[in-house]
Specification:
elongated, 206 residues, 6% strand, 3 strands
C-alpha cells in the first residue's frame, strides 16, 4: 500500500518514456539533430519525473504523519512546508546510497552516452532500446526513493528517533531483507536498501 502511488507513477512514466524514446527512432540521424532530440527526451522526461516525485513524496509524508496520529490539516501544512520543489531537487542532486549516483548528473551522462552511441552504432534502434531500459530503471528507483525519503523526513520532523524495518512478509522477500524484518534501528543508522526494495520503516515511539 505504501508504494501504490509510486507504482502508479512508474507506470505513467514508463508509458511516456516508451513513446518519447520511440520518437528518437524516427529522428534524422545527423549529429546536431540527434543531440537536440536526445537531450529533449531526457529533459522532458526528467521534468515529468520531478512532478511525479513531488506528488509521491507529499502523499508519503502525509501518510507517515497519519501513522503518528497527526490530524489531516496539520499533516498537510507540514507537507506543504517541507516537501517543496527544492526538496525534490535536493534528493535528485545528492548521491543516493542505493543507486550510488545522483539523478541529475546521471541523466546528463546517460544522454551523452546515447548521443555517442548513435553516432557510431550500426543498429541505432538497438541503442535507443538499451538506453530506454537503463533510463526506466533509474526513473523507477527514484520513485521508490521518493516514498522512502519522504517517510524518513516525516519521522524526523515528528521527533522519531528509532524505526522498525518491516518486510512485505511474502515469498518474494530477499535474503538480505528477510533477517532485518522486525529489527529496530536508530533513524540515522538504517541499513542501505537495494534496487526496488519494498520494505518500509515504521516509527518506534520511545
Amino acid at each position: 500500500m505504501i508504494y501504490d502511488a509510486a507504482d502508479k507513477a512508474i507506470r505513467e512514466m514508463n508509458r511516456y518514456n516508451l513513446k518519447a524514446f520511440g520518437r528518437l527512432k524516427l529522428a534524422r540521424w545527423d549529429e546536431l539533430n540527434v543531440i537536440r532530440e536526445v537531450n529533449g527526451v531526457y529533459n522532458d522526461s526528467t521534468n515529468l519525473a520531478k512532478r511525479k516525485y513531488y506528488e509521491i513524496a507529499v502523499e508519503a509524508y502525509v501518510v507517515a504523519l497519519y501513522e503518528l496520529k497527526y490530524k489531516p490539516d496539520m499533516a498537510h501544512r507540514m507537507a506543504d512546508d517541507i516537501i517543496t520543489a527544492m526538496w525534490i531537487l535536493g534528493m535528485l542532486d545528492d548521491v543516493d546510497p542505493v543507486t550510488k549516483y545522483a539523478f541529475l548528473p546521471e541523466k546528463d551522462r546517460k544522454a551523452q552516452r546515447l548521443v555517442e552511441a548513435l553516432s557510431v552504432a550500426l543498429d541505432k534502434n538497438r541503442e535507443v532500446d538499451k538506453a530506454l531500459r537503463y533510463w526506466t530503471t533509474q526513473v523507477g528507483q527514484y520513485a521508490d526513493n521518493s516514498v522512502y525519503n519522504a517517510r524518513l523526513q516525516a519521522f524526523r520532523d515528528a521527533g522519531i528517533k528509532k524505526v522498525m524495518w518491516v518486510t512485505k512478509r511474502d515469498e518474494r522477500v530477499c535474503d538480505f531483507c528477510y533477517p532485518l524484518d522486525g529489527e529496530v534501528f536508530d533513524i540515522d543508522e538504517v541499513p542501505e536498501r537495494h534496487y526496488r526494495c519494498r520494505c518500509i520503516l515504521k516509527p518506534v515511539k520511545e
